[in-house]
Amino acid sequence: MQDATDSPSPPWRLPDGSVPASSLQSGPAPVAPGRGEPGAERYQVGNVLGEGGMGRVSVAQDAHLGRDVALKELHPSLRHRPDAAARLQHEAWITAQLDHPGVVAVHDAGQLGDGRPFYTMRLVRGRTLAAALAEAEDLSARLRLMRPLLAVCEAVAYAHACGVVHRDLKSSNVLLGGFGETQVVDWGLAVRVGAPGGEGPVGTPSTMSPEQAAGAQADPRADVWSLGAMLCELLTGAPPYGGLDQDATLAALRVGPPPPVLSPPAPPELAAITARALAWRPEDRYPDAGALAQELGRWFEGRRVLAYHYSPWELLRRVLSAWRVPVAVGAVGAALFGLSVAVGFARTEAARERAEHAEAQALEALDTAERRLAALQVEQALTATQRGQRAEAETLAALALSVAEDPLARGVLAGFGRAPRPARLAVEESPACLWRQLRDDGGAMLCGEAKGTSLWTLSPLTRVWRSEAVGVGGGLSAAGALLWDMNHHLTILGLSDGAPTRALPLTNMSQRPTSGPRHLLSPEGRVWPDDSADGAQGVCPAGVQAATMSEDGARVALVCLGGVVAVGPPDGPMRALGTPLGERLGATAIRFTPDGEALIIGGEGGVLRALDLQTGLERQHIQTSLGAIRRLQVSQDGAVVAALGVRGGVGLWSLTAGAWLGELPAPRDADVAMLPGGALVAGDTLTRWSLTGLERPIRVLASAGLSDLGLSPDGAALALAQGDGQVRIVDLHDGRPLGVLRAGRGVVKGVGFSPGALWASVMDGAGLVGWSWPDLAALPTPPGSRALRRLTTAGAGALWGVDFGSRLFAWDSLTEEPAVLDVGGPYLDMEHGPGGVITPERHGRGAAGARGRRAATPRPASTGPSPWRWALRSGPGPETTA
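The structure assignment produced for this chain is given below.
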């Protein structure tokens, strides 16, 4: 993005350098997003793109959305000028009102820590129209810029329709993007139509209208003059008063009209359009930019231009061209016939040239559309990458690269690296089903139809039987096929022939789950719940959210309304688990692990949890983008969970690595079964996938280098100390960034978590910097803060550290000065273990500091000197150190 004020022709100002106060119209002031520099909050300010008399434009990184924007701020020298601040706020406000593709989009606005206003806008990578005109070698090259100029007229026409006059239109305030975008910027002098004048010249003299030069009220016709000046520059290579300086141009504007546009190679219609736009009297010009845009559109389409006075010969050519057949038939002489043929030939040539030009414009527009589609595909690929939808992400990135090279698309493909992906082994057509239920081993499928139910074996695909029994859901077990209808009447069908073996009209509905399978069928043919089962009523008085049965049918697990988890035999008393999660469970699907020691719970928000059935505590959890989980399956080895959500797709979660493995494509009504080393997805097709080798370590890239790592108390997050003064926090489950904290300007040498806090040691004046965990609010600096080589935590809130003088410091209280521990020698590092803080000494000895800061005991660590210590870890016992 370029600041339009960075121009050889800055906006006109009063002799004292101020902006006329009446050029600022009232409007809502932007709301400050908070205290502090924007880089410390949301924006990381980068290189300066340009500076003008009032503002400065820089590239900024939006930390919330992960994109580059252009940030315009009031120049520091003007921070005590309320009129300058008001003008920049007015510019942000009035630009934000103009929602048009040709007007630069405003994303955010606010105030810096020193009170200076700023606003962010779209970052356009390209050049100004002024630069493009300067690089054009001849009139033909300049005429290729007519299409962007028409886009400028259309954008200004929208502003005029909204009652806004720009008052500073010039080629340096028009940005041409690399993908065909045309953006009008720098609306700092814009006013509402009807705003009073009289404050003196306002605008840039080279494109300023005579009434602006006289300080009179500006209306849309003043912008028409400025657009005419830009059109004059395109046709002749210079503005209307070319060659004059600003003062001379301003004086000429008060004397008389500019010389006529004389450029013989230029199309005469365009010269006439320019002359009307530059009419001295406003009433002789086009009434607004919309009328000018329509006139240019007529020229582009080859229609008659209203501003051009056609000669009789030119009118005759048009008449003869329109009526060439009747004229040819009625011609009385060879001369007239030859004349008509000549005129027709000339017209055909002109039409051919215009057609070729129009074809070139169409091809250019098609190329622009393809590039925009590719940009959209890249955005969708990035979204799919964040959701773990690898196949979709790679497909979209490849489609985008087939149009044009794009670094983000390359990044999507490179981001997965050589990591293994699910391999599609076989695909075959699936029967048309309203609902489908796979057997857990993937060997058979129950298919619900509009007028019946059928059972299919899948290796090969063969229909075993079809029954007239109709259900809205069902299940398969060794005892048969279970169906339930809208009235919750149950029917059990035989597996061999589909004949009904039992019908169970149920009256006790208090135990029926509200989500997932409504009824369960054990291998022995026992249905749960039925009228004789009342074990759940004691632990689930309010009702059951979800239920599941173990593979052998010996146990049933329930999640009750209110978050209670209960386990027990189907026909016996249930044991309630004291899980601390409570109503946060929001269970929509549950499943036993094969060993029966844990319960996998899928929730309404797409959260997956593994709950220990012995302790009732959560082993691990992960947030997915699947939506509410409607079905769960677990591999026979208990390593991988397959989850189906209401948004479609089959999510894969590794229980052994605690990592998200990605998604398999699947429609919303699909079902899944886990196979040895793979999975079977039943939807519109039956697709077998190989999942071998999917689990992989998480890679976190840090361009500034890493100096230390810290693990959060719950083991879910990792803090990275970086060489650029930042602390990066990532999710250990999938490597997603959780936040970036600015600790200082120097290298962050140490980082560590204590209960409720995160601490970092910075190699500058900041020393120790702390934030509350997990809400990351800044904490007060402890007394005696200093730069530490290493940092660790010891006990409830205590900090230990080693400085560059190899001295050992201990803070028992973060409100008191630290104690310097003398343990008999200089120390380089430390580690916190069950027995306290352990530090190695430079000459090979060690010291173990107890939980109190003043007790420190030297211990021998080796028989010879060890000049440097590269790694130190403490074992589970107080006497174990490596």
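Interim note for the steering committee: Residues 706-859 form a domain with the Methylamine Dehydrogenase; Chain H fold (CATH 2.130.10.10). Residues 1-26, 28-36, 841-882 have pLDDT under 50 and may be disordered.
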